[in-house]
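Changelog-adjacent note: as of this version, every example in the card shows the full chain rather than a window. The one below runs 323 residues end to end.
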Amino acid sequence: TEIWISGDLGIDALVTFKPSVEVAIRGGFTGAEDRAEERPDGLVTGYDGRDEQYGLTLDLNKPTGGGNLGLAATYLIERMRFQHCKGAGLSASHSQYYHTLALADCAVVSNGQEAAMEYDHKNYIGAFFRGTESSAHDLLSYMTLTNCLFACNALTNGTPFGCLGCGATFMNFGRVEMRDCAFVENGLTLEGAAVPDPQKNLHPSVHGALLASSARILADGCRFVGNAVRGSGVCELSGVVGCSRFRNCLWTGNEEVASGNETAEAGMVSLGINTTAAAGDYTNVVSFGNCTFAYNLAAAAYNGSAALNVKQGTACVTNSIFY
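Full-length structure tokens:
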């Protein structure tokens, strides 16, 4: 099933889309095309929350009454721009095994909120994707992202509670493949930085570009530029993330913002790999090849690094630059 969209969409209410079949949502049409290949180069369709509405929620959970749509189903979103939404501009969750969500030539930009709330799922800003795991804790959901942009998604005002994944958050995925994606200027504004509450022992973390919680990341040619974080990593990988891999990736111009008496361990890439594997087992390793970490700033109050901070697990680094 194909859904073709032309023009921009101004959203006045929360929109949840639950497809009953495999579907491809394609933007970038003028309305005169007979084939998707006839779309003008570079044209995208905007989904605009007008700074008042939450973004699009894609519900890929099992149909009511149980059952699946079949193994290896793929859902595609192509040439869409999600912008000016409160919280996440785009979110998706699914509980169907072996299904893949694919994003191509999409942008998630200028989404945010003034203050995150305690225990609120809308603390996710930018894009939020949740997969599934089996009863044996195998991660059975997959994602692919090609030439996607996550930019200027930010927490803009004070909160004593943390904010997760200002660029994109991935939870419970066996594999997230990212190729030629960019994460630019996500995270905190200056106003959003000065908010810890020492009296309540609250020193919240704010992740900048990418948060992977039990989601294996396979990134190639991706860029992380000008993101701002507090008490966390610009790329924070934790849980079952062994076998993640970064190739030909760049981290530059990113910054950690200290506030109050925070002493959290952070880094441009922060690894906390949760695994029962024996020392030396490859499943305990995140690898970096032909990567560059340059001109990143770490706050003096932190116990981490301005580049790569390994809190648990092993990082394998080859042919890379730290400058």
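Structural remarks: The CA atoms of residues 214 and 240 lie 4 Å apart.
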